Please model this.
Amino acid sequence: MGGLKDFAKRKGKVGRFSRRKIWLFLFLLILGLLATCLYAQGFLQGTRINQSRVGKELAQPFEETSASQRLVLRRERSSNETLDKLIKKMNQLVKTAAKTAQKIEARFYTAQAIKHIKIISGEIGVRQAGSKGESQAADYIEKVLSSYGYEVKRQKFELPNGRSSENLIAIAPGQLDRVLILGAHYDSKPPSPGANDNASGVGVLLELARIYKIRHAVPTIKFIFFGAEEMIDTNPDHHHYGSRHYVAHLSPGEKEKIFGMFSVDMVGYGNNFHVRTMKRGSQSLVKKLLSLTRQKGFNLTFRKDEGRYGWSVHEPFELAGIPAAWLEWRNDPYYHTPRDTYIHIRSFCVETTGKLIISFLSNLSEEKRD
Ligand SMILES: [Zn+2]
Model:
């Protein structure tokens, strides 16, 4: 058989290669494959060890995620980043909107001041010292101040006619301990409902109190609503009970802290805007105010109080050596008459007064910065 012969011939040789060489080749091939397997296994183990170092929780999902899953994860990550950016932008927008809203809210709204004038002189009406009308006005002032977040202190005092009245005090803390007093009397001279004298001053002060709960002034502002300013009988010295009582009960330390006091009285009607004093105390506040009004274009002029007395609540402050002044618009033909109603109130006078005080306070902030 040719097959057997061929096999005999080929014994020890397969084609050009000897059988030994073939076995050697196969052996080396198997050895190579085995080494590759071992190496691959070792590599994988090494990777797993490294991964476990990083943290099984982190490594495991990546090892097990497919390419498409990884793509989804990448997209999720980038959409999360976009969302973060969007949230940051939205927060910035909300902050800007809040600041703008606060600026709008902190403006002087003349209509608000006039609303108070209307309620005090129209709905409450005549407010003689120690009367029910005066006490109703005090309750209204307290209610408004409380609604702005103030704690209102009431200071009661007796009148020589056996009645009593009260001062109402609200404090807007400033950046400094120095105090500016903004005062207005809330009683009226019967039979006058006292819209201009002096619901106008109260209206301006209430609106300023609302503003300075939002804004922060350099000095601490004490808003004081004084009772019993008008004469209670025919004796020309029987007036200013609230302001005199307040000044008489100041401690030397409290007095020291007050760098100025403005009386805001009769600021709702007239053609001439005045700052007034008795010229018996420090004129520093007046000088400061007049130099500011010249710069800012307010048409304010000085006028001295005639006679022995100061004609508003600044009087006891001035006599106690505290720089004090009275802001007043003149002349009102309805002064101390039943015709002093809110109908004749001029919004221009009310607005100018409010804005002048704001300008004075803003100027103090600029001075502090310089
Ligand atoms: Zn008055």
The mean pLDDT is 87. Residues 185, 197-198, 229, 265-266, 312 surround zinc ion (CB under 6 Å). The domain at 109-369 is CATH 3.40.630.10 (Aminopeptidase).
